[in-house]
Amino acid sequence: MAYSDKVLHYFRTRPNAGELDAEDPNVGTGMVGAPECGDVMQLQIKVNDDTQIIEDAKWTTYGCGSAIASSALATEWLKGKTIDEALKLRNTDIVEELSLPPVKIHCSVLAEDAVKAALQNLQEKSGEKTTAAAAGSEG
Amino acid sequence: MKTPVYLDNLATTPLDPRVLDAMMPFLTDKFGNAASRSHPYGWEAEKAVDLARQQVADLIGAADKKEIIFTSGATESDNIALKGVVEMYAQKGKHIITASTEHKAVLDTCKRLERSGVAEVTYLDPDRTGTVTAEMVSGAIREDTILVSIMGANNEIGTIAPLAEIGAVCREKGVFFFCDAAQVVGKVPFDVEAMKVDLAAISGHKLYGPKGIGALYVRRKRPRVRVAGVIDGGGHERGMRSGTLNVPAIVGLGKACELAKDEMAAEAERETKLRQRLLEGLRAKLPEVYLNGHAERRLPGNLNVSFYGAEGEGIMMGMPDLAVSSGSACTSASLEPSYVLRAIGVTDDLAHNSIRFGIGRFTTEEEVDFAVEQVVDAVAGARDISPLWRHKLRDLEKEGVTVAPGSQVMVPDANEPAGAGA
Questions:
Q1: How far is residue A58 CA from its own chain's centroid?
Q2: Do A61 and B390 touch (CB under 8 A)?
Q3: What is the mean pLDDT of residues B296-307?
């Protein structure tokens, strides 16, 4: 199967490949997929406390070229977005942008899931932060 | 050096130029129908087919060239052997024994026979090396068993079956032995007499002959095997395979067999060395390289390895100058990794990471060295962005375990299959 030029582009240039500090309270980490299925994607976002804008996003992906390109593209789109905007990211946008064939649609679904998982992780952390702050003020 | 470097000779081989030379007259001036008895055009075609039949018979040690039936390829030969024997010997029994790692041409034919109720099939699971032993076969034979179907060597993992031992068991118990020999013929010694094979499937394009041609060996004596034809028509090929003979392709298959017979021994040695060079080259630079299949008893040109943490298709995409194949799910529509790797107990986290290299007659040492460089870069690149690799590496480093070129510490239960090194 031949890849689209955009898949090849993201596969080769690998924008935002790497990791952020998962311990950072402003970093949300999402890890989806399973080694048994041949796809595992880790996506991380770092949100600015004051502006609530995603100022950085990183990914690492075990999987095929389409999964790698999907995660790279997702992080490109996330940077500079608000959390609400990020929640609107849909896998179909990735399918369209990368011209993914039907057998590779699951790669885009994985990317959407990874974004949601990262946002959820961030929400959990901010919940903890609020609780910690509340606990701190009480003490 | 021409790129992409072709290292997928288990999928298909290029036509040997000497084979093309032998075929050319039959693609041009000598166009006669081998069944035409009334003029020299037919006579010369028939003569050429006779010679090819002898060349095929000679390569596999068949006693009589009449035992060779020309078909369109190994898939058709597999179909005729299984369906033809089941139909012809329905009175005797309906049980077939085969293995879960056989080629789809055998497995899917067996499934169809089961569905239509004319056969019961036992699928043997091979051991960790991919080997189906004579004992496994012997233990599965029943009163009503009519046929044992075991491939000569596996197309994915290259493991060569103990054919002589399986043949002896079958002969002793009075069961026909069919061997899908597409991968072994012309690569390693294959002798229907010594191995007591009763039927064998042969493919032209796996041994530097043309595509669209193959053969089925059907034993005529001690014991005589009869098969019902699958394609009806003019009664060609002793009624077992009707259809005007594809004379140029048959001539090509014959020539390919003649060349293989002459050059097999030296070529097998050369390819074995190249395979070792490839594996050693990879392990010298990469940690966590796991061999799939038998360490020694394998096709000379086959190397199948899994790279922990790097997915097969991702690896291949990182080395566009190499033509290889992978057992990764992503290369198939099913999203399941190779059924062969699963059947021999390769865990899913390694099955997705397999690359199959097929070294062939025209592969050079320079190409193998180039392949090592390309694979090392591609695997390192894939691991660099792999969360599995990164997390595992961090965990092991914390424990003080060293991950270095040649190491196999990430999947400790994936024992190296039999023998040391390949």
A1: 7
A2: no
A3: 98
The pLDDT > 90 percentage for chain B reads: 93
> With bands split at pLDDT 50, 70 and 90, how would you rate the model's confidence at A136?
low
Judged on CB neighbours under 10 Å (0-12, 13-18, 19+), B421 is exposed
Quote the pLDDT of residue B368: 98
Q: Please state, as a whole number, how many other Cβ atoms lie within 10 Å of the Cβ of residue B110.
A: 25
Q: State whether B387 and A60 contact (CB < 8 Å).
A: yes
Chain A residues in contact with B389 by the CB 8 A cut-off are: 62
Which is nearest to A10 in space by CA: A62, A59, A70, A61?
Answer: A70
| Chain B interface disruption, residue of A31, A42, A64, A106, most B CBs within 10 A | A64
Q: How far is A57 from chain B (nearest CA, A)?
A: 14
Structure tokens at B392: 């595992």
Chain A residues whose C-beta sits inside 8 Å of any chain B C-beta: 3, 11, 14, 17, 19, 31, 35-42, 59-68, 103, 106
Band of residue B419 on the pLDDT scale cut at 50, 70, 90: very low
B340 with B157: CB under 8 angstroms? yes
For A128, other C-beta atoms within 10 Å of its C-beta total: 11
Q: Which band of pLDDT confidence, cut at 50, 70 and 90, is reported for residue A120?
A: very high
Give B97-128 as a DSSP string.
EEETTS-HHHHHHHHHHHHTTS-EEEEEPP-T
Answer yes or no: pTM beyond 0.90.
Answer: yes
> What is the arithmetic mean of pLDDT over B108-131?
98
Decide: residue A37, CB within 10 A, 0-12 exposed, 13-18 middle, 19+ buried.
Answer: middle
CA max distance for chain B: 84
Contact A61 B385 (CB under 8 A): yes
Q: Which ranges of A79-104 does DSSP label H, i.e. alpha helix?
A: 83-87, 91-98
Contact B25, B37 (CB under 8 A): no
Q: Which residues of A touch B335 (CB under 8 A)?
A: 37-38, 103, 106
ipTM score for this prediction: 0.92
